[in-house]
């Protein structure tokens, strides 16, 4: 029986040695991988192309001479003083507006003189006025069939007396 016990003990020792060897190999492989992970990853990952800097186009503003208009009300007349600056999409639109400036100013004056003083003093009234001016100014100017592209109509002064 002693031989049987010795055989069992030898088998047990071999099994324990195998388990210890497997655990040691696993720990060694894990340590090796984690210490070299960045280097190994760099080998297999292609380099990212250099990001191109984003070029933000400068805004193109076209300031107009201020407008003074008499508004008729139920109680008499009031004076509207407005300075307008147009933000245009491109240089072609800016040149078109400058070339047709007398017509641009006439369109604005006609629209302003039709306004009701009490209404355009409200936020909603000014927003409506901006929309009306934008539509009117983006129409083509005769005889040129092209129309300017206006992104914003900005009030830089707005006084009603």
From TrEMBL:
Q: Show the InterPro entries listed in the entry.
A: FliL
The text of the family note is: Belongs to the FliL family.
This protein's membrane topology, according to the annotation, is: Single-pass membrane protein
* Alphabetical UniProt keywords: Cell inner membrane, Cell membrane, Chemotaxis, Flagellar rotation, Membrane, Transmembrane, Transmembrane helix
Function, as annotated: Controls the rotational direction of flagella during chemotaxis.
Name-wise, this protein is Flagellar protein FliL
Cellular component, GO annotation: bacterial-type flagellum basal body; plasma membrane
Name the GO terms of the biological process aspect: bacterial-type flagellum-dependent swarming motility; chemotaxis
Q: Where in the cell is it found?
A: Cell inner membrane; Cell membrane
Q: Mark the transmembrane ranges.
A: 12-33
